[in-house]
Amino acid sequence: MGNHPTIEDVARAARVSRQTVSNVLNTPERVRPVTRERVESAITKLGYRPHASARRLRTQKSSTIGIRLDPMSNGISGSVLDSFLHALTEQADQRGMRVLLYTAADPHAEMAQIRKLHDGADVDAFVLTSTFHGDPRTEYLIAGGVPFVTFGRPWGVDDMNDPQHLWVDVDGASGVREATEHLLARGAARVGFLGWPSPSGTGDDRRRGWQSAMAQAPGMDAATLAALTITASDSVTEAQSAVLRAHAAGARWDALVCASDSLALGARMAAASVGLAELPIVGFDNTPVAEAVGLSSVDQRLTEVAAGVLELLMGVSGKAIVPRELTPGESHRLITPRLVVRRGDTGVDLAGAP
Amino acid sequence: MGNHPTIEDVARAARVSRQTVSNVLNTPERVRPVTRERVESAITKLGYRPHASARRLRTQKSSTIGIRLDPMSNGISGSVLDSFLHALTEQADQRGMRVLLYTAADPHAEMAQIRKLHDGADVDAFVLTSTFHGDPRTEYLIAGGVPFVTFGRPWGVDDMNDPQHLWVDVDGASGVREATEHLLARGAARVGFLGWPSPSGTGDDRRRGWQSAMAQAPGMDAATLAALTITASDSVTEAQSAVLRAHAAGARWDALVCASDSLALGARMAAASVGLAELPIVGFDNTPVAEAVGLSSVDQRLTEVAAGVLELLMGVSGKAIVPRELTPGESHRLITPRLVVRRGDTGVDLAGAP
């Protein structure tokens, strides 16, 4: 490192002008073959590499993707975005792209960050996470012509197929339906659902998966389904309290499906304390915690999500950063998650029959 | 975004040459005040901002810190480096620095990445994590004159005070000693230690903290201490098996101090299954899992670690990226962790007296 050969060193070694070296690098077709070979040989011999900033200035490309790093939530579910970041960085690296992190306290601060990074040509494209209904960021990016992909679908009705809004999301309803059907098939009849308060795009989507599976089961009218539903914010202790309150009020379940591993862990602790240590419980996110305590869970397949994000940005094999001509069907990917069944630490199959 | 004013637009508006605008930006002291004011006024009016790549090329500064993102470990302890990354990114942002991620399969691949990023002036300085005895990366960086700080001390004996190797680390021995002394003060006599196989720089350091606290307790000879020690690799199930094996072989403890939360969770599950659900157990790392299951743990204070890293790189208030003149005592920070005491999910104080 330290001192590197400069373009002047190459020019001197090849006995050409600085401009000729520059032409060989940028418009080789304009340089006579015999001269080009001499310059290329000098480049190789000296180990000259064009300065990245100069190259970026020339090409207006930084080969860099920007992504916001959310404040540390100190929670269990927060690890999902960290896992996604790992998958994205690893796969971006394989495609010659880097990942630049930034922070922002709210969507408006994030828009200011995006503007700064994009204006400076520091970042070619952005990956937005934690989308929500009425999210101002996507409209802003579309208006500014800034390439981006969201991990998370647009939660408005009209823009799901907008070819200007590229997105990758996980089909939460499908994952929760699979978990519920698995429990029903193993003999559970009253499968409860522990989810977040409505409205929540992600949470309501997951609850719909449970509802659609339960609608197939015999005797499941609206009142019965309502009696099987528990609501809590995404915290272990809130979930624990909510399950204990519902149990004290007489609610009974053969099994529980939960909108997150945090909720599932709270349910697990509540169940154990009322003599239901063997109640089958399934979480969502397949976090390290679920693995550690032997909790079945729905895995979001974040490697697939990251691959989808990069494919939408760069094409399947190419280096293109959007915009390209995309049909509505090509502008998003909906990943089907998979159920991971584990035996719990009580020694019984937690996702098994009661 | 889209079209931005160029340096030519500013020159035209201020009725000066392109070179004069450039002088105002780079060497304003050389420009006559009346001209400078006219150019500055045009810059403000047009909202011109110098292109970041051009600025970087000029200053050879990228305002960017590079850090390797380790492959996803899917474990509990892996969240420590993610937490550190969050703290580093937030504080770097407050100092006008960005964080660029890269991946590397091994130390040699990392050195190649570092060379590429540093040669391209993409990154001003590097933060290295997961240092180990005989780590080739630090020697390489010192030889190349590349600014860096390691999170993790040099594990060799001679280089702890090398002013060329800046480092921040957490005093693991002190944290484990505090945890052990806490348990002894609450009435436990036979405090066991569950740690990783030796040699392990970090693991041996933590075990020394337990040893030094136990050495103060009455009747603790080498044989007793050996009988109180359990070893397992950093996995919940390995820890669970190791504790069960030791218990079956007749080992008895009043409490357990563990080198990580993964080990502590395994110990917790093992203890519960042999009727010792109330055995006080303390982990290390204060991960989300420890918080979720109510396990006492030693917190590394990663916000302090990140602040120390940035202070070593940039000075307490300045923008300097090392090298500066540093005395041996100024070239590192050893952060004292703190014990977080929690009540467990069994309803008893897990860190309390037996």
Kindly describe this structure:
The structure is a homodimer of 354-residue chains. By secondary structure, chain A is α/β, with parallel strands linked by helices. Chain A folds into three domains: 7-50, 434 Repressor (Amino-terminal Domain); 64-170 and 301-335, Response regulator (Rossmann fold), CATH 3.40.50; 173-300, Rossmann fold (3-Layer(aba) Sandwich). The first copy, chain A, is 44% helix and 14% strand. Chain A is built from 14 helices and twelve strands. In chain A, the strands form two sheets. Chain A has a six-stranded parallel sheet, sandwiched between helices. A six-stranded mixed sheet of chain A has the order 7-6-8-9-10-12, with helices on both faces. The longest helix of chain A has 16 residues, at 79-94. The radius of gyration of chain A is 26 Å and the shape is elongated. The relative contact order of chain A is 0.12.
Core attributes:
homodimer; 354 residues; alpha/beta; 434 Repressor (Amino-terminal Domain); Rossmann fold; 14 helices
The largest sheet of chain A is: 6 strands, parallel
How would you write the strand order of the largest sheet of chain A? 2-1-3-4-5-11
The gyration radius over C-alpha positions of chain A equals: 26 Å
- How far the N terminus sits from the C terminus of chain A, by CA atoms, comes to 64 Å
How does the overall form of chain A come out from the CA principal axes? elongated
Number of helices of chain A: 14
What is the strand content of chain A? 5-15%
Q: What's the CATH C level of the largest domain in chain A? A: Alpha Beta
Low-confidence stretches of chain A: 345-354
Mean pLDDT of chain A: 85
Oligomer: homodimer
Number of strands of chain A: 12
The CATH topology assignment of the largest domain in chain A is: Rossmann fold
- Report helical residue fraction of chain A: 40-55%
CATH homologous superfamily placement of the largest domain in chain A = Response regulator
Q: Helices and strands of chain A: which structural class?
A: alpha/beta
The succession of helices and strands of chain A, N to C, reads: HHHHEHEHEHEEHEHHEHEHEHEHEE
Q: Most extensive interface: pair and counts?
A: A-B, 58 and 57 residues
Number of structurally distinct domains of chain A: 3
Architecture of the largest domain in chain A, according to CATH? Answer: 3-Layer(aba) Sandwich
